[in-house]
Write a structure and sequence with these properties.
The chain is an alpha/beta fold. Helix content is 35%, strand content 23%. Helix 6 packs across helix 8. The two termini are 34 Å apart. Bound molecules: guanosine-5'-triphosphate and magnesium ion (MG). Guanosine-5'-triphosphate binds next to helix 1.
Length: 305
Amino acid sequence: MFAKKIKEEKFKSGFVSLIGKPNVGKSTLINKLVGEKITIISPLPQTTRDIIKGIVTFDEAQIVFMDTPGIMDTEEAKTLVDKHIIKEAIKSIEGVDIILLMVNSLPPDEEDKFILQKLKELKKIAFLVINKIDKTNKDYLNELSKIYYNLFPFTEIIPISAKKGTNLSILAGKMIQYLPFHEPYYSSDLITDQPERILVAELIREKIYLLTHQEIPYSTMVKVEEFKERKENLIYIKASIYVEHISQKGILVGKKGKMIKEIGKLARKDIEKHFGCKIYLDLWVRVKKEWRKHTESLKDLGYNI
Ligand SMILES: Nc1nc2c(ncn2[C@@H]2O[C@H](COP(=O)(O)OP(=O)(O)OP(=O)(O)O)[C@@H](O)[C@H]2O)c(=O)[nH]1
Ligand SMILES: [Mg+2]
């Protein structure tokens, strides 16, 4: 049963979808609220590819967050992966109690306006979350709030810094205020519904985003092939990193295997932190030509297409 199940009749619980264009800091906010890295972060746009649930349980409420891939104008979507990303993000909005639209501390651009248009069609409670306020000043924020409010009647407008943790308790309090009375959907010790293999694959993918450049991160897919507890306190994990061209394989492996070793080292540290035990990480780089364009390879690689 739920460890923290108190004030039963007054408990609030619900789903919150976090949407916004790529790179505004959606995954950073979810990790900060959950208190652990459950969804990966990078300075590059389009890091998140699927919807990831992050669960936060308070004494009086439980919020189930859906981290979504950044929404771009569909016209821009060129590959099946891009289309999948947009479809997933928009789908996540149906059936949630609150939508958080996250923007940078900047005036709306065409992409933000595209999302605002989608929001108008939905008729749901929507908060505007202005992120990265550590990089801007207060007067400008008031100005920005007015600009956005003129475009959409947000229920709340909350400036935050996801990275620094500024105003997050205010944001949580406001969300709880608008959640329905309901018993918790998940056990209070659960922080994500992500299967362990997916989380491991994502942590490896995060390091590829961190260490490689240009098209390499976007051409990469990671699949965990084996996950075995070998002895007490040691897990053996075999994972394949798929790329589209042989030249990309060369870059990922690096001179004398330097790059793949570095990716493995950083990923292993994060995976060990998550599982609290030693990890033997066995990484392989493989070529799967144009996997991003073929539905079959996408399914094979674990995309829910
Ligand atoms: N200065 C500053 N940087 C931030 C803040 N929040 C996030 N970032 C940075 O913004 C970048 C993008 O963060 P993510 O959390 O990956 O963004 P996202 O919206 O999930 O991006 P996609 O998954 O690509 O849609 C990272 O480099 C973060 O460290 C913040 O409050 N202040
Ligand atoms: Mg993300």
